[in-house]
């Protein structure tokens, strides 16, 4: 996905789209398995969410919002912190993406999750 996103002049998002789909379909796995998967995917979303191309960053944040909403609906197991781990890419993007519009989108996405 990273290679596709770095192609110029027009980055491709096919692999990133497939990663989002795969993430969605694997949410039903055992939480311990999912946490291992998310360690890799979360780092990837950190990079993609801070991409200098605004359309790519927007896509990453919107995909994160959709996945996080679905994951939060599942509820949290006692003594686990998977939901917190799932929300960390939003924090990373807020700290490291300098685009005001991307940061605004992160705030709106998190606010939307809180209100729903």
Outline of the structure:
By secondary structure, the chain is an all-alpha fold. The chain has helices at residues 2-5, 14-25, 31-49, 54-73, 82-96, 100-115.
Describe this structure in words.
The structure is a single chain. The termini are far apart. Helices cover 74% and strands 0% of the residues. The chain is globular, with a radius of gyration of 14 Å. It has 6 helices and no strands. The protein is mainly alpha-helical. It has helices spanning 2-5, 14-25, 31-49, 54-73, 82-96, 100-115.
Number of helices: 6
Shape: globular
Beta-strand content: under 5%
* N/C terminus separation: 31 Å
What are the salient characteristics of this protein?
116 residues; mainly alpha; 6 helices
Topology:
Blueprint: H1 2-5, H2 14-25, H3 31-49, H4 54-73, H5 82-96, H6 100-115
Helix pairs in contact: 2-4, 3-5, 4-5, 4-6
């Amino acid at each position: 996905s990273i290679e596709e996103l770095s192609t110029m002049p027009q980055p491709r998002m096919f692999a990133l789209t497939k990663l989002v789909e795969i993430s969605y379909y694997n949410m039903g796995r055992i939480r311990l398995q999912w946490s291992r998967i998310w360690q890799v995917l979360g780092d990837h979303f950190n990079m993609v969410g801070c991409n200098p191309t605004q359309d790519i960053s927007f896509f990453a944040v919107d995909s994160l919002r959709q996945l996080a909403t679905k994951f939060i609906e599942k509820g949290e197991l006692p003594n686990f912190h998977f939901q917190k781990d799932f929300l960390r890419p939003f924090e990373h993007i807020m700290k490291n993406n300098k685009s005001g519009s991307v940061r605004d989108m992160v705030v709106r996405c998190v606010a939307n999750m809180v209100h729903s």
